[in-house]
C-alpha cells in the first residue's frame, strides 16, 4: 500500500464518452500530480496542484480536465478522447516546498476505442 | 529544458552478476535526483533521492551515486526479484516548491536464475 489510491484500475471508453479518474492520498501531502505513461515513452507530467491550486499545465489538450477539491483528492475528467490517449495514468503526491520524493498510485490503465 | 537519458534501455543478467545502470541528466539547478522501481502494470515505487554530487545511498543490493552530470544505480549480486524497470527522474529548482519530475525512459532489467 503506497498511500496513494487510484480508481478505477482499468477503464475502457469510447471516443464520445465522458469519464473521470479518481486519486486519493492518505499521506498528509499538499501537492498532487497527474502523469501519463505511454509505451516506449518516459512519464510525462500533465498537471500539478499545490495547496489545491493548479500551478502547472504542460500543454495538455482541453479534453483532459483536472479538479482538486481538497489536498487529499484529485480527479481527471475525460471527454471526447482519442485512441492515442490510451495509456497508464498515474497520480502522485508529495510535500511541496520540501525536498521530498513523490509517491505514486498504481495507475489507471485507460483504453480508448 | 530538463533532460534525462538512461542507458542501457534493457539489460539481462544472470543471478549474482553485478552491474550498473546509468542516468545522464541536464537540468537548470538540480533540486533532487530520484530513482524509482516499476513493476509491470504498477506505479513507480520510490527507491532513493540524491541531492548533491558525491552523495551515495544504499538499500539492500542497490547503491545509488551522483555526480554533476550523471547518476549510477549499482546492483550487487542481483536476484530474480530485482527484475523490473528502473526509472531515473530529476526535479529542478523553479521556486514553486511543487515541481513535477522529468523522467527518463527507464532501464528494463531482467535477472535470470
What does the model show?
- The complex is a heterodimer of chains A (113) and B (113).
- With 113 residues, chain A is an all-beta fold.
- Chain A has no helices and 11 strands.
- Chain A has strands spanning 4-7, 10-13, 18-25, 31-37, 44-50, 53-57, 64-70, 73-79, 87-94, 103-104, 108-112.
- Chain A is globular, with a radius of gyration of 13 Å.
- Chain B has 113 residues and is mainly beta.
- Chain B has no helices and 11 strands.
- Chain B has strands spanning 3-7, 10-14, 19-26, 30-38, 45-50, 56-59, 62-66, 70-75, 84-92, 102-103, 107-112.
- In chain B, the strands form 2 sheets. In chain B, strands 2, 4, 5, 9, 10 and 11 form a 6-stranded mixed β-sheet that branches.
- At the A-B interface, strand 4, strand 5, strand 9 and strand 10 of A face strand 4, strand 5 and strand 10 of B.
Topology overview:
The complex is a heterodimer of chains A (113) and B (113).
Chain A: E1 4-7, E2 10-13, E3 18-25, E4 31-37, E5 44-50, E6 53-57, E7 64-70, E8 73-79, E9 87-94, E10 103-104, E11 108-112
Parallel strand pairs in A: 2-11
Antiparallel strand pairs in A: 1-3, 3-8, 4-5, 4-9, 5-6, 7-8, 9-10, 9-11
Chain B: E1 3-7, E2 10-14, E3 19-26, E4 30-38, E5 45-50, E6 56-59, E7 62-66, E8 70-75, E9 84-92, E10 102-103, E11 107-112
Parallel strand pairs in B: 2-11
Antiparallel strand pairs in B: 1-3, 3-8, 4-5, 4-9, 6-7, 7-8, 9-10, 9-11
